[in-house]
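Hi F.,

I've been meaning to write this up properly since the lab meeting, where we talked about keeping a consistent format for the predictions we share between groups. The idea is simple: the sequence comes first, exactly as it goes in, then the structure tokens exactly as they come out, then a line or two of notes. No screenshots and no reformatting. I'm using this chain as the first example so we have something concrete to point to.
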Amino acid sequence: MIPTLSQVSCLNSPFDRDLEDFAGANLTCAEVWLTKLETYLETHKLDDVRYWLEKTRLTLPVASFQGGLLASQGEARREAWELFRRRLDLCRELLIGTIVVACDVPPEISRTEQCSVLRISQQTMERVQVSLTQVAQEAGLRGLKAALEFQAHSSFGNNLQTAAALVADVGSPHLGLCLDAFHWHVGPSKTEDLGYLTAANLFHVQLCDLADTPRELAKDSHRILPGEGDIHLAPLIDRLRQIDYRGCVSIELMNPQLWQVPALQLADAAMAALRRLLAQ
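Output, unedited:
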């Protein structure tokens, strides 16, 4: 398992400063936050990114995240897929092997005289399956992988079991799973669902914690360092060991309070927390 930190954890820090500070915390790789990279490239060139990678000796194995691909329609779908293809090309240029794709399927509203009911139609489920096949094909054309991240509040694909089934149905070596501890904890996933993880289908892992927050009310902004809250991460780590997972284990925090912490300080704390967790 490779200790990693997502750039979103230091959202207020510039892209190149992240790389310098992550290297200062003895990291060997970083999880790219795509919008941060794209903002950097508005005023810099790809060679500038390569310069910093060479200087810091960091690699960028994973980029996160792409949404809007699976159930969107019309103009929104066209824009999402154009962005996805540009991002795949960008990942290929920078040797980023895996891109995280969100399983963000919005609910549909069925109205009756008495009430409105949220539901998911068979047509939408089929659209998601077709879209995932296309995701795998687009990634495969560029020699890349896509990691499907189930979303706790999605109307379909909101748990590990369903996400694993969706990936298995596609049956492509270019499509696997991203396991985010936040969505695993706050959504309908069960500890037993970890049994669906294998060395072949697990492409990426993201860790965090929550403290004194009911799962029904938990938001990304409540994320804290793993090991400092209430998420029972031990079974997850045990399963990674059982399948001999050798990919990245990244800390991903979207906490505005932590964004105020200097990137070097946060990277030091994050790696200390992650090493304690992996050593248990």
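Notes:
DSSP finds nine helices and ten strands in the chain.
The first strand starts at residue 2 and ends at 6.

If this format works for you, I'll send the rest the same way.

G.
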